[in-house]
Amino acid sequence: MGRLDGKVALISGGARGQGATEAKLFAREGAKVVLGDIRDAEGHQVEAAIRAAGGEATYIHLDVTSDADWVEAVGTATNRYGKLDILVNNAGIVLWKRLEETSEAEWDHLMAVNAKGVFLGTKHAIPALRRAGGGSIVHISSTAGLRGSPGLAAYIATKGAVRLLTKATALEHVQDNIRCNSVHPGGVDTPMVRDAPDDLARQGRTPMGRRAAPEEIAYGVLYLASDESSFMTGSEMVIDGGRTAQ
After folding, report:
1. Tens digit of pLDDT for each residue in 128-142?
2. How far apart are alpha carbons 66 and 207 in whole angstroms?
3. What is the model's pLDDT at position 187?
4. Contact at 8 Å (CB) between 169 and 180?
5. So what's the pLDDT on residue 202?
6. Residues labelled catalytic
7. In this predicted structure, what is the pLDDT of residue 212?
8. Residues 94-123, mean pLDDT to the nearest whole number
């Protein structure tokens, strides 16, 4: 039996990196997966890979800053697969700049993708989750949402926002049987992190001496998405190789 048998999941940022890994893992564990991204060619490749492996998946174009795109994404899940049980707000971007160097436009763009995108996805998923009798929302934050670090001011602000939005959502919707938890990865071996400047990459080194493989984060997301974590809501799952223990 798969750990997500009978579940329908919607994952943003699913075209590559951590989101693609989550989509493939969820499908292997029995979920029907709707994955959204703005990288359409890569997203269709993930969909095809899941189907080739015997899973069920649908790729959709999803700009997480667009209210209309989120309405379409949730509608695709419920119309095609009959319901929605799981939302993973995975999409995010990073800006490797100090506060003084960050422009207003850059600040606004990060806030739109990393914070507003999570708000919109959660807002539109909640009615569908409620109709399904409840479900699980997983927000991908970061260790940057737990502690300060120079050179990432705007990114840290967005991930801190995601951390506390998680708790507010959990408390507002506990009576709907909707759980909401956040995952806080350290450095993960994905294209986004590989672009880090050398000085910031050194700051991100962990006691384990390496970055996480995307699968090591995805299994934590899987646990929170599944019924195995039925007594967890408003919680923070830190998967960082010991970085925040320092």
Report:
1. 999 999 999 999 999
2. 39
3. 81
4. yes
5. 47
6. 155
7. 85
8. 97
Is residue 150 pLDDT above 60, yes or no? yes
- pLDDT at 196 (0 to 100): 59
Three-point CA angle 206, 211, 216, nearest 5°: 110
Site of tokens 């990459």:
201
Question: CA 22, CA 14: separation in Å to the nearest integer?
Answer: 8
Non-local (6+) Cβ contacts of 168 within 8 A are none
Three state DSSP letters for 167-198: HHHHHHCHHHCEEEEEEEECCECCHHHHCCCH
34-86 pLDDT tens trace: 999 999 999 999 999 999 999 999 999 999 999 999 999 999 999 999 999 99
Output the 3-class SS for the chain. Answer: CCCCCCCEEEEECCCCHHHHHHHHHHHHCCCEEEEEECCHHHHHHHHHHHHHCCCEEEEEECCCCCHHHHHHHHHHHHHHHCCCCEEEECCCCCCCCCHHHCCHHHHHHHHHHHHHHHHHHHHHHHHHHHHCCCEEEEEECCHHHCCCCCCCHHHHHHHHHHHHHHHHHHHHCHHHCEEEEEEEECCECCHHHHCCCHHHHHHCCCCCCCCECHHHHHHHHHHHHCHHHCCCCCCEEEECCCHHHC
**What is the rounded CA–CA span in Å between residue 225 and residue 177?**
13
Residue matched to tokens 């009615």: 127
- Paired tokens of 5: 């048998």
